[in-house]
Amino acid sequence: MTDKDPRELQFEESPARPRGIASDIARRGDITRRGLIGAGLGVAASAVPTGRAFSAAETESDSNLPPAVPQWQKEPGAPILTPPYGLPSPHEATVVRRPRAGAKPPTDLATYSLTPLQDLHGVITPNGLHYERHHAGVPDIDPEQHRLIIHGLVDRPMIFTMEDLTRFPSVSRFHFLECSGNSSPNWTAPKPELTVQDIHGLLSCAEWTGVPLATVLAEAGVRPEAKWMLAEGADSAAMTRSIPIEKALDDALLAYSQNGERLRPEQGYPLRLFLPGWEGNTSVKWLRRLKLGAAPFETREETSKYTMVMPDHTIRQFNFVMEAKSVITFPSSGHRLAAPGFCEISGLAWSGAGKVVRVEVSTDDGRSWREAALQEPIMTKCLTRFRAPWRWDGGEAVLASRVTDSSGYVQPSREALLKVRDVRSYYHNNAIQSWRVASSGAVTNAG
Fold it and tell me: Smallest Cα–Cα separation from 20: which of 2, 50, 42, 53?
């Protein structure tokens, strides 16, 4: 036994374990962000017990255990190209999008599904697991007949086919997409059973390919008096949002591909507007119309919806930027730690204002914080994976993370957030998320 504080993140050298680069770091009690990066996270894992001795009895009871030859090695596998579009292993059947646990949307048209963040690795979300949010179902659009019209305060009103748009020089960028209603369960008292998917699953990240909107607007000629742009989708809800012209001319993208393939129907096929770092509903899907004007168009989605209640009870419109946020995805609610010992804490951080520059992790309910290692590449307005070593001592612990972005903004606590926003805001909850680890190893939501 040791009387050292487990918050110091130190590891004792085991005489039975060979020493390498990582164990040298551990022996010095110097497992830090710099130490982990210097040694390499893969090497650092060698300092942790990850295997165990096996017995002949175990092998005899299960012929698939090594050193026996497993059954699947004794016969040919499935033929190639069956099915023609690749599918995950049947053993990953639980890694799926789904609604929030215990919640049933009133309709299957105006609904959503959540990304299983707890089951993902790295920062890219596979297309089949990217979250969904719809207002009138998913339209079936023939790309040969789809058109994008640009009109209003322009010199030359124009209509573009998909072929026209794909002939422009293209760019590919990695960005997150987050619904402004993401994390909304955290406005109320925490429900212990809610998972990271339930609370934060309206978040995904992909490589988006398309043509910069500024390039296409230059063809139409934006008039000096044009200050806003109305974006309209081709779904039956005619989803519309007003966008400041500065954003349209900055990093806005007319996206037609995602993660190397054409957009999926639920992600806006064949064309969507993509506004990096801004609330997801402004990245209008199934884009069919851009109208330039001198003022906001005051649509339904920016008057009765997607507004925020302030502490003085006024209502604030046009809350575009998704503020810096982070969340530990492992261990998180729904997980169970098998036994005391080493555990690598891992999670995601992001900011609509720029890059992630620092993530801190606490294992004692915010009484102390330690810097986590950031996984490269670190890109602007993109998810960043962070990791931190932790030795669980078997007692109760409360895990949390907080991020600082390139603007200097620090992710707030719930108490700090409520000083600048009313609890009825619903949207843009970026408060620190905590998970409670019980002595049994069970992890639950602590809000």
Answer: 42
pLDDT at residue 428 in the model: 97
What CATH code would you report for 325-445?
2.60.40.650
Give me the sheet containing 341-350, strands edge to edge. 325-330, 341-350, 384-392, 373-374
For 393-397, the CB contacts below 8 A with 24+ separation are 393/6, 393/340, 394/339, 394/340, 394/439, 395/439, 396/436, 396/437, 396/438, 396/439, 397/363, 397/364, 397/436, 397/437
Q: Kindly list the domain boundaries of the chain, sorted by start residue.
A: 129-316, 325-445
Tell me how far apart the alpha carbons of residues 239 and 170 are, in angstroms, rounded to a whole number: 26
pLDDT, one tens digit per residue, over 358-372 is 999 999 999 999 999
CA distance 110 to 26: 52
CATH architecture of 129-316: Alpha-Beta Complex (3.90)
- What pLDDT digit, counting tens, does each position of 229-261 carry? 999 999 999 999 999 999 999 999 999 999 999
